């Protein structure tokens, strides 16, 4: 393929392609090629002039940079001076802009210049020169450290005897924080081991020690399957994707209006594309749905029910990045079992679970909890160790080993086998008890048949840790994706609300691809069908909904929309059933008059009966209570389908009365209003969330990496249609999987339109990182 490079802008790799329908792949600047280039240069000693042209195109930079390449000899010194300035830049928009400016210049440095920067930065670590403004005590500690280095061992001992414990702590652990440290940590952690080693072999030992302190300052928090930092890709790149002038205004279709769709749509609109969004339902949001109650006078009440996603772990860093950007607050207050006053109803017996206790007050359940803790720790501890050390090679080896062992095993089989390996005997009582206890957020018995790797992902990605809720609701949070304004390439202020065409009650009934362009059949609520062409299409619907669009069928008179492997994947991936029933109560009966939890009323109940999980939700600033009377999955959800919501409530109250009669008595729906959902019966969803069965990991792999068909080197056909949504992610049912795949699809669509993506984009995630067939990768 012939490519003609053009001048990069703000660290963005940009090329134009004269063939293949203007597809753009920056071959010289892909991560793999750049890594190899770095190693080649450094094996023969750093070279001076393999960097990109300076300066960046920014008219008024925040830092002091060379005016042009004639001043290139001073770039390393200027870079470190700018790091010092960045370290003390107050929090706000200018700090973020400065970090992005530093990041853009780093991408332009030659290998030798990078080594020079790292040498100086590494030496400045302990002095606080690139950390945030050190305190007076820290400055004194640094001065003492410098003096101690000149003393004999006996003199050092005498000097240290007079120090307090806090002073000793300052000596031993320099404070490593602030915007400069954060940027440098990201930069070092994002490098491949080979690329980092190539640079570090030319860095002084003292500087290397300081750099290692920064690199390992925070553990690797990336999700296990990709080990990719989506948050930093967005944070440190002012323009993650760009479109050339001739591609701006081309129309892109986004199928869906949930988190994945809104993420992709925002990125493409900001880059200059014309965005059309279609939604089969009469509301936007997908499975982010805060359904508000109605007051007796017909007005909308502040209380609401979260019909879809409701728990948000901070390890979903990309989602939290957006929430922070939009000023959306979360609270670490979700009433999970054991976090609030909890009771279990297990085999006809009521069992207490005190807040903060690791397990309920039951000999059997305590033992089951301890046993599973040993099993889980044996699997998660090695991963945590590798993450703390940022040892990506070790991390890959561990996870591949787990894939080899567990890819074809169910949750039930893996737990049973794991106990046997530990010499622990589990019979039916223990397995039933674990089904009621789960791994911290309630019973997982309905999930026993699913693939164990899906459950293991929840554990190693810490999706069950410190779950937050959104006090104003998920619909409110998603609305910010639509209303928050951005600046497009022409300098205009744009938003999805103002500038995207959003069609509700419109379904996609077919997609055809021809020479990289798509023709889509759109069916309106009145039955009218329109055929319309689009330059690119992003589909964020559930895998079953994709199948209903005909995407799994072989093409007849057009190019294939999806490869055979991906088409097979969307038909085979397993969707989990799920049901919820909410009511609004007159008061928050589980709280006392001061708003504190009552000791005689549980806030959460878990049962082995039909209600399964019961949660009391007292949203701040509201007068009435909201109770999730039943949250069920899988087979337990299926068994409820024959009952009307009112009938379900009466059945649930019978079980709850066994645990707490007063709790059951308070379950009177205000104004008789019930909110019920069975996600498997929603004609636009066909299920609640993707959860692989044993043996489906290869399907998952094919669906997730479909977006890389936009790269020329990828063997898949590039139809211009890209998949997104948590249903094709490795974290089905979690909003993080939705927003990250939305980013993937936006990057792919930009490349397909002839655009460019910033260095280190999701296109650099290695598709061959793991072998999901369950055999060790060669």
TrEMBL record:
Show the GO MF annotations.
L-amino-acid oxidase activity; tryptophan 2-monooxygenase activity
Where in this chain does the record put each Amine oxidase domain?
263-748
Q: Does the keyword Coiled coil apply?
A: yes
Q: Which InterPro entries match?
A: Amino_oxidase (IPR002937), FAD/NAD-bd_sf (IPR036188), Flavin_monoamine_oxidase (IPR050281)
Keyword Metal-binding on entry: no
Highest taxon of source = Bacteria
- Which GO annotations describe the biological process of this protein? amino acid catabolic process; auxin biosynthetic process
**What catalytic activity does the UniProt entry give for this protein?**
L-tryptophan + O2 = indole-3-acetamide + CO2 + H2O
Q: Which parts of the chain are coiled coil? A: 141-173
Q: Which pathway or pathways does this protein act in?
A: Plant hormone metabolism; auxin biosynthesis
Which Enzyme Commission numbers does its entry carry?
Answer: 1.13.12.3
- What family does the entry list? Belongs to the tryptophan 2-monooxygenase family.
What PANTHER family does the annotation carry? AMINE OXIDASE, FLAVIN MONOAMINE OXIDASE
Name of protein:
Tryptophan 2-monooxygenase
Q: What species does this protein belong to?
A: Noviherbaspirillum cavernae
């Amino acid at each position: 393929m012939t490519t003609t490079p053009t001048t990069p802008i703000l660290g963005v790799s940009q090329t134009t392609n004269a063939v293949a329908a203007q597809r753009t792949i920056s071959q010289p600047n892909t991560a793999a090629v750049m890594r190899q280039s770095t190693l080649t240069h450094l094996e023969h000693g750093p070279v001076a002039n393999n960097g990109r042209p300076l300066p960046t195109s920014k008219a008024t930079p925040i830092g002091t940079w060379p005016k042009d390449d004639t001043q290139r000899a001073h770039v390393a010194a200027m870079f470190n001076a700018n790091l010092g300035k960045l370290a003390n830049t107050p929090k706000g928009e200018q700090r973020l802009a400065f970090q992005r400016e530093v990041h853009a210049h780093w991408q332009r440095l030659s290998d030798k210049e990078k080594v020079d920067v790292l040498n100086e930065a590494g030496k400045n670590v302990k002095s606080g020169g690139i950390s945030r403004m050190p305190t007076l005590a820290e400055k004194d500690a640094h001065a003492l450290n410098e003096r101690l280095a000149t003393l004999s061992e006996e003199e050092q001992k005498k000097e240290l005897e007079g120090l307090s414990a806090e002073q000793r702590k300052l000596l031993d652990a320099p404070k490593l924080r602030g915007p400069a440290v954060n940027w440098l940590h990201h930069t070092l952690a994002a490098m491949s081991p080979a690329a980092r080693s190539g640079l570090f072999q030319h860095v002084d030992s003292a500087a290397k020690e300081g750099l290692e302190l920064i690199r390992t300052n925070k553990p690797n928090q990336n999700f296990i399957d990709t080990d990719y930092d989506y948050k930093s890709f967005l944070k440190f790149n002012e323009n993650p994707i760009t479109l050339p002038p001739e591609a701006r205004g081309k129309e892109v279709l986004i199928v869906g209006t949930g988190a994945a769709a809104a993420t992709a749509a925002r990125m493409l609109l900001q880059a200059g594309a014309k965005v059309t969004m279609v939604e089969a339902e009469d509301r936007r949001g997908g499975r982010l749905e805060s359904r508000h109650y109605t007051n007796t006078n017909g007005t909308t009440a502040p209380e609401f029910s979260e019909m879809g996603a409701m728990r948000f772990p901070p390890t979903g860093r990309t989602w939290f990045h957006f929430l922070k950007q939009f000023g959306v607050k979360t609270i670490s207050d979700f009433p999970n079992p054991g976090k609030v006053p909890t009771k279990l109803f297990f085999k006809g017996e009521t069992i207490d679970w005190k807040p903060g206790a690791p397990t309920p007050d039951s000999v059997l359940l305590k033992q089951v909890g301890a046993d599973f803790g040993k099993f889980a720790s044996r699997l998660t501890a090695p991963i945590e160790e590798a993450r703390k050390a940022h040892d990506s090679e070790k991390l890959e080896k561990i996870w591949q080993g787990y894939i080899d062992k567990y890819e074809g095993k169910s949750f039930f089989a893996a737990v049973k086998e794991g106990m046997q390996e530990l010499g622990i005997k589990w019979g039916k009582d223990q397995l039933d008890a674990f089904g009621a206890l789960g791994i911290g957020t309630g019973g997982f018995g309905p999930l026993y048949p699913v693939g164990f790797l899906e459950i293991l992902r929840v554990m190693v990605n810490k999706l069950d840790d410190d779950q937050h809720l959104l006090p104003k609701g998920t619909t409110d949070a998603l609305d910010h994706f639509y209303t928050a304004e951005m600046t497009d390439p022409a300098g205009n202020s744009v938003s999805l609300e103002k500038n995207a065409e959003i069609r509700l009650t419109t379904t996609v009934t077919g997609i055809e691809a021809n020479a990289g362009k798509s023709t889509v059949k759109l069916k309106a609520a009145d039955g009218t069908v329109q055929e319309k062409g689009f330059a690119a299409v992003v589909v964020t619907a559930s895998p079953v909904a994709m199948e209903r669009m005909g995407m799994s069928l072989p093409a007849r008179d057009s190019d294939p929309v999806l490869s055979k492997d991906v088409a097979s994947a969307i038909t085979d991936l397993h969707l989990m059933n799920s049901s919820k029933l909410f009511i609004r109560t007159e008061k928050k009966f589980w709280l006392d008059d001061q708003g504190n939890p009552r000791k005689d009323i549980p806030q959460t109940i878990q049962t082995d009966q039909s209600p399964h999980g019961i949660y009391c939700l007292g949203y701040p600033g509201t007068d009435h209570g909201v109770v999730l009377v039943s949250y069920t999955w899988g087979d337990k959800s299926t068994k409820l389908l024959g009952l009307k919501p009112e009938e379900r409530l009466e059945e649930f109250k019978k079980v709850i009365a066994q645990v707490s009669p007063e709790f059951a008595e308070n379950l009177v729906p205000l104004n008789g209003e019930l909110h019920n959902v069975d996600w498997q019966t929603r004609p636009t969803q066909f299920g609640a969330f993707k959860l692989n069965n044993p043996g489906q990991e290869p399907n998952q792999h094919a669906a997730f990496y479909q977006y890389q068909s936009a790269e020329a080197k990828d063997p898949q056909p590039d139809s211009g249609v890209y998949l997104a949504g948590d249903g094709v992610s490795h974290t089905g049912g979690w909003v993080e999987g939705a927003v990250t795949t939305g980013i993937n699809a936006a990057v792919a669509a930009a490349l397909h339109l002839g655009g460019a993506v910033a260095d280190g984009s999701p296109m650099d995630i290695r598709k061959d990182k793991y072998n999901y067939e369950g055999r060790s990768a060669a």
